[in-house]
Please model this.
Amino acid sequence: MIPELNSELSVIFGSMAAIYDYLGSNERFRALAYKKVSRVLKSLNEDITVFINNNTLDEIPGVGEGIADKIREYVSTGKISKYEELKEKVPFELMEMLNISGFGPESLRQIHKELNINTKEELIKAINNGSIARLRNFGIRKVENMMRGLKLHKKAEERMSLWLALQLSESIAGELKKLKEITQIEVAGSIRRKKESIGDIDILVSCKPENRRKIIKAFISLKICKNVLLKGDTKASIIVKHDDRQIDLRIVEENEWGAALLYFTGSKEHNIFLRSLAKEKGYKINEYGVFNVKDNKRIAGKTETEIYKLLGFQWIPPEMREDKGEYKLAEKNKIPKLVEIDNLKGDMQMHSRWSDGLNSIEELASFVMKNYPYEYIVLTDHSKAERVAGGMDENKFREQNKKIKAINLKLEKEFIKTGAEVDILADGSLDLSNDLLSELDWVCASIHSGFNKDNTERLISACRNPYVCCIGHPTGRLIGKREEYKADWKRIFKVAAETGTAMEINSQPDRMDLNDELSELARQQGVMLTISTDSHSLSDLAFISLGVWIARRAWCTAADILNTAGWETVRKFALKKRDLFTNSN
Ligand code: DGT
Ligand code: CA
Ligand code: CA
Ligand code: ZN
Model:
């Protein structure tokens, strides 16, 4: 988890950036600077006080003298006076709305000025009663966009992202694990199934009955606990500080562990199917065990495996427990060997300081070599159309390729592969020349504009470019902020399979793109998938597990994921596509 102070400062600087955005184009550069430092602090592994004590704040990217002063001020006084001053200048409650798609600074300024609106509630009311649609420059289209944005935002607030839920549940489980009275502990529910969004967190514990009280007490006394919703002998629920999420704790006996874990992992639909099947066989199954209906004798329950076995199945991985036909495979002992994080041989997308990443190529390479077992990484900086992200032209890419060659020489292996994340332009053509693309080891093509139209044709033309190896974050969604654009995925995947173009599973927590369903569809249509982090900082590299979980929920094996193979195979995949096109022309 990120140190608390860093995260507080990151939120404040993000909020200052929003205020400067709101104040208008004169403050554009300040807004950008604060956005950057907010992002940097979020991905800084070390506590900010370490930098203060060592007098090294200026070594943090984006931290100049002014910002360093503010950091020190906050750490010593708990406040930033400039921030307090800025808050007074704007309708502060509206600032968080700038993060929602459909709400730009200009619109918000006009709404505030002309309708005297100061809060989110007033704003929503004005949208619903039509007063906003009547404002100058606000058509029905625009108001519809705002409503769509609000809906997405609300949905994201109701459920938390898998990444956050995992951090939270692991830190709580970590605390509880210190109690020696606990025999077994596991995070169950949708987190164990690795669903992309999580309603509440379910933690399951087994222990001797006499120890329950102590465990419940420890749970409701956690530092993170804000209030206790429910406290019983075998269960308790709390709400945690920060974002009001609910955590359920269940305590069971040691010999009930398997039955309880199965029950509380779900999904509900998976459980219901199991229960009806058990009934057909003359058994009753619940969270305490499996029983013979005839004499009510308990015949299983200690492990999940023995329960599945009794019902005629092999053990089913939690990610597959969604009642999508997993039993049919399990009864024939044909559950696929799902891809695992250890199968990955490299990360296929990341950005360096050459475009909008925070680190130099050297830093990325040495950090990965030290902390990950990869054989290669692919550097995919942005192309020139991405002006705000420091996109590069052909010459700059050639310069970068030389640099990569030099670094690889020093490393004494071809660890860093040359690549690009090239923009797919409005007409489906690419932002870089084929000449340049042909010189790269790997080309990922992505859409970064034109989200409001059907993008099927654009994606298909990108697949038909002989040098495009992969489509990056194919649907373009940003969870809670932007819906995926319209596209005919069956048609796109068909072309991808025919042309030998891979589809990316992008592991950024707010992207998770492709998601589980589309990854499954792609796999079924014979499309090769890649898993990548799209890292913009060193800490982003850890997102890779999210991508692996999406792939597992899509029932992918290592063979379905290109970067479980060594570079030779990856390279062959790219060259095969080029051959296909040169031979057919
Ligand atoms: P969530 O929290 O909305 O992300 O989804 P889950 O799957 O974690 O659901 P939750 O927290 O309501 O319940 C945890 C597990 O408990 C669920 O996956 C299956 C089990 N469960 C809950 N309610 C029922 C039920 O009515 N019938 C059955 N068979 N199982 C249930
Ligand atoms: Ca849950
Ligand atoms: Ca629950
Ligand atoms: Zn991108």
